Model the fold of this input.
Amino acid sequence: MSELLRFLQQRNSAPKLTAPAPSAVEMEEIFRAALRAPDHAWLRPWRFITIAGERRQAFGELLEQCLLQRAPEADETARAKARNAPLRAPLLVVPVVKLSAHPKVPELEQRLSAGCAAHAILLAAEACGYAGIWRTGDAAFDRAVMTGLGLAANEEITGLLYLGTRDGAPKSIPQLNTADFVSSW
Ligand SMILES: Cc1cc2nc3c(=O)[nH]c(=O)nc-3n(C[C@H](O)[C@H](O)[C@H](O)COP(=O)(O)O)c2cc1C
Done:
């Protein structure tokens, strides 16, 4: 079996991440992989926002403010969780889908394309020797968070990709049977 195939079969998210994150040069390569996401009609319905260094604190403050708007009763534990969430990795990438009206490309396909780009980022980061995890949660669906990140009304957060170096042993990969998921018609 080719090494590349084995690599694809063993991609593994990393919930705990530490420094270093991919360098700017490596991120350029990683984004080039994202730009090869399948894309009906070549709409290029995505863009990517990076959040690193002290900007993670600022993003945490935004997450806390938005949490308080959604849930004014949120206690200090919940507030701290929101505030500190971006500090779980040295680098965050937010894949954004830019939705547009197209006679042949429904919004679902544009969102799927952005999801493929997000997956490509995770794969490419892992190929460069790093690790990552795709997270969402209520904040990722909150329009106030999107506005705070500078998204336009036709844009949405596809996910929050946390990138860095795996902290601890990789988690075991569940052994799934393809037969449970595949049938011939
Ligand atoms: C769209 C999407 C959103 C996700 N959101 C979260 C999340 O908010 N929190 C979380 O712990 N995992 C989330 N996950 C799951 C992790 O990214 C990851 O898939 C999971 O930890 C299993 O690890 P594995 O991908 O290595 O099997 C999400 C995955 C996807 C595709």
About this structure: The longest strand covers residues 91-98. The pocket of flavin mononucleotide is lined by residues 12-13, 133-137, 159 (CB under 6 Å). Strands lie at 17-18, 46-52, 91-98, 131-135, 155-157, 160-166. The chain has a mean pLDDT of 98.
